[in-house]
Amino acid sequence: MKSQQKQKRNRAIALSFVSVLLLLVYGPLAQWFVAADRILYDQLAGHLPNKPLENAVIVSIDAADSTNDETTAKYGRIVEVLAAAGARRIVITQPPEIPDHQDLPAWAAALNATLPIYVPTHNRLADLAARHGFVEINPDSDGILRRSALWQLNNGVMSPSLPLAVAFDSDDASSHQGMSGSENAIYLSNYPELPRVDVDDLLDPVSDKSPLVGATVFVDASPALVGAVAMLPSRQFVTTSEIVAASLASVEQDRMIIAPAWVKAMEWLAPALLAIIAVLFLPDRSRKDIAVMAGVGIVILLLIETLMLYVLHARIDLGRPLLIFAGVAILSFWLVGDEKKEVQDAFKRGSDFLAAGRLEPAFAEFRRCPPSETVANIMYKLSLAFEEQAKPERAEAVLEWMKRTHGAQGSGLPGKHEASAGPQRLGRYVIERRIGRGAMGAVYLAKDPRINRPVALKAIPIEKEFEDEELKEARLRFYREAESAGRLAHPNIITVFDAGEDKGLAYIAMEFIPGIPLKKFTDPKKLLAPKRALELCAQTAEALDYAHNQGVIHRDIKPANLLYNPKEGSLKITDFGVARLTDGNATKTGIVLGTPMYMSPEQLNADDLTGHSDLFSLGVTLYELLAGEVPFHATNIAVLMTKITSEDPAPISKRRAGIPQTIDTVLAKALAKKPKDRFSCGAEMAIALRNCARFS
Q1: How many whole angstroms separate alpha carbon 500 and alpha carbon 492?
Q2: How far apart are CA 159 and CA 184, in angstroms?
Q3: CATH assignment of 515-696, given 1.25.40.850, 3.40.190.10, 1.10.510.10, 3.30.390.30?
Q4: Predicted local confidence at residue 339, as pLDDT
């Protein structure tokens, strides 16, 4: 599907999805989705910094063991004591219930005294109190009390709530929000705890009453927690007095949380606006961009609601808009597909086609991959394959595509800084200089003059090493090894382009990668960070898993054969020239070499090898990268073989500070003596290494 068609399809799907989501979230299923608004509000409001009501206390009568008459009498004694002590005002939030046929108690006359006493509207004492107001406790469907009404219409008259009625008597009542009736409700957040006075201490004639002078006293028959009637967004259980006290503090301190009409308009506008933004900008982005945009959008919404609440003390519910935006982002993330996986799949399919000799479908798959050094290498290999099939015009098409997408291929090619002691040319490759000596012979930096492309050329003096029948067998083996290595196409494996023979030298042309052998980082003074070493070995394990699935064993995994590019954080396995097909039954030759200190027990014993041998060598490599020395070392090969086949190395966590014991477990499994006790494959080892890196 073309890119533009895919974008149109994705937008159409996203638009349909968001339309249905809007109808559900704000329509028939609103009661299910409103929880998003509530949860978000609770998380923010529960931590809102609030101040308790100044100079206020709560007195609670325990009416459990008293009759109604006894409780009523105790209310009277409390009122008398508070009046005598010089309290500023008394708020009886839970007055005793007095039946209509019963006379009011004598102390009720004090309600008309100089001391302001406030009671709920629907109580017989309200007719005598200085002021009265309604007390309404209506939790939401989830049991949380978030809203408290300020005004109520009674018989055509607007009546204030009890906390608002108390606030009317304050000296600066006219400056408080809510006094004019423009706001119908306030929203609760948390309860700044007020001190409580024990009833017995209060009624004790000899107790100190000075703390009550000028105090606001709340009187009820609901002890803390036991008498709780609701839960606040902060998840605090509160009594009626505590609710009234928190509301009164909000009003008098001008910290009321309200929801003005313009905020309600924004709540309706926000989901539609976010839906439009999501549909227009998300479906045609990459997964990374979608994740970034969704994250930024969610953070902005959270900041808006936080600032509105903490700075303007206004409640705006953005939980559902946030849910809609996140939903469209998730859908878009799924619709665009995993581009990285698509590229990996295309690269794998192309590699499989190339290995099977189906060059045209391979070309089609590789063109789906974005430009990279790995793609350039495999395309170069493909052009050579077209030449071998006598299709020069297709080879030219591949090279032209490389030039258009990858630019000049010869840029950055090193010059002749050193005189070469070797040949000036091998096959069609021009030797620049010798850059090293591997297990199989010298390694040269050369270039393919046809496209001016740098290559690493490994040359083996095959005619000097073998004679007669051995030479014939070695030559056969060499091309077989080159073929097996040439089948490998993986981002973490050096690509083999070509093989040939010239001037008595067998050569393999490979991808040239500027990098640092990990051997440089085995010096105890230059060790890599544990997390970096684990990640590089995980990349190696994944590449080995791919090679093993292709039937190729490396046989010489060690730090010197792992090239690391610190700028890109990438790694390449080199020297697959010593590998051989796992189903090969030929005997060993001098071409198949290894390094004893990195060899597995079965390799030292000349047993048949599987991919488990490479995983053992990788375990030795990781140990050396972390500790600065190999786990097995000795003065001679016999002692070394004994240690590798029979001794367990010291735990790495005891060799270097800061290494978690989880790495000991991974290394113990990788370095198990028996292949069946090691990781089942490289992919499993890579997962274990990355899990360790997470906690390093």
Answers
A1: 24
A2: 11
A3: 1.10.510.10
A4: 63
Say what the pLDDT of residue 64 is: 78
Residue 587: the pLDDT is 37
Rounded distance between C-alpha atoms, residue 444 and residue 549, angstroms: 30
pLDDT score of 481 = 75
Nearest-angstrom CA–CA distance, 175 and 193: 25
Please name the residues in contact with 607: beta carbons below 8 A apart, sequence gap of 6 or more: none
Cβ-based burial of 177 (10 A; exposed 0-12, middle 13-18, buried ≥19): middle
Main-chain dihedrals φ then ψ at residue 438, nearest 5 degrees:
-95, -175
Matching residue, tokens 């295309």: 346
Give, in degrees to the nearest 5, the angle at Cα 649 between 643 and 650: 140
Contact call for residues 134 and 159 (beta carbons, < 8 A): yes
Measured between alpha carbons, how far is 403 from 393 in angstroms, rounded to an integer? 15
For position 415, what pLDDT does the model report? 38
Q: Look at residue 174 in the predicted model and tell me its pLDDT.
A: 53
What pLDDT is attached to residue 438?
55
Instruction: Report residues of the chain scoring pLDDT below 70.
Output: 1-4, 6, 171-183, 337-340, 392, 406-422, 437-441, 463-470, 577-594, 696
DSSP 484: H
Distances (CA, A) of 509 to 380, 385, 424, 436, 483: 11, 14, 15, 14, 12
Q: In the prediction, which pLDDT does 407 show?
A: 63
Cβ–Cβ contacts within 10 Å for residue 20, how many? 11
CA-CA distance, 696 to 690, in Å (whole number)? 10
Return all residues near 138 (Cβ < 8 A) that are at least 6 apart. Answer: 145, 147
Report the DSSP pairing between strands 147-149 and 185-187: antiparallel
> How many C-beta atoms lie closer than 10 Å to residue 311's C-beta?
8
Tokens representing 171 are 């000296």
Q: What is the CATH number of domain 423-512?
A: 3.30.200.20
Burial (CB count within 10 angstroms: exposed 0-12, middle 13-18, buried 19+), residue 18: buried
Of the candidates 460, 497, 503, 496, the one whose C-alpha atom is nearest the C-alpha of residue 478 is: 460
Rg (C-alpha) for the chain, rounded Å, is: 41
The model's pLDDT over 639-659, given as tens digits with 9 standing for 90+, comes to: 888 899 999 998 998 888 888
Nearest to 294 by CA among 253, 262, 336: 336
Closest CA to 186 of 121, 135, 136, 259: 259
Q: Report yes or no: 216 and 53 within 8 Å, Cβ to Cβ.
A: yes
Would you state the pLDDT for residue 1? Answer: 44
Tokens of 224: 């803390």
Contacts of 262 (CB under 8 A, 6+ apart): none
Please state, rounded to an integer, the average pLDDT across all residues of the chain. Answer: 84
Kindly report the pTM of this predicted structure. Answer: 0.54
**What does the domain layout of the chain look like in residue ranges?**
3-47+260-336, 56-252, 339-406, 423-512, 515-696
Closest-CA residue to 93 (of 239, 211, 249, 195): 239
Question: What is d(CA 379, CA 395) in angstroms, rounded to the nearest whole number?
Answer: 9
